[in-house]
Amino acid sequence: MVEQDDNTFKDGLFDIILVEHTPNLLELYNYPLGVLHPELNMKYVDRYRAKSIMIESTEKLAWTLDGEEGESTLVAKVENYPRALQIYTNK
After folding, report:
1. Picking from 15-19, 32-36, 48-52, which range would have the lowest pLDDT averaged per residue?
2. What is the pTM of this model?
3. Distances, alpha carbon 81 to alpha carbons 4, 12, 13, 46, 85, in Å
4. Contact by Cβ (8 Å): 41, 24
5. Read out DSSP for 48-75?
6. 73-79 and 52-61 beta bridge pairing
7. What separation in angstroms does the CA of 23 have from each of 20, 27, 40, 67, 86?
8. Which of 26, 52, 71, 84 lies at a C-alpha separation of 20 to 30 Å from 12?
9. What mean pLDDT is reported for the chain?
10. Count of C-beta atoms within a 10 Å radius of residue 34
């Protein structure tokens, strides 16, 4: 697992990992390396940090966000609203 300090999760940015389809099955072996080690320059793995992402397709996309299924659509837009939810507890 990639170790990150606590502040990494509070910056309001998504860690986006895009894995391109490859015609070479041997490249599949390297995918986990590209995901777990961002310092490696992997041919079919791109990493980004962004406040939002929009993906457009000519075919309907089935997608999930944190395990929650989204509706199949031609355009998927996800935005990060940091600290938008306040949780109160009785202590």
Report:
1. 32-36
2. 0.60
3. 20, 7, 9, 23, 9
4. no
5. EEESEEEEEEEEEEP-EETTEEPPPEEE
6. antiparallel
7. 10, 8, 21, 28, 46
8. 71
9. 78
10. 19
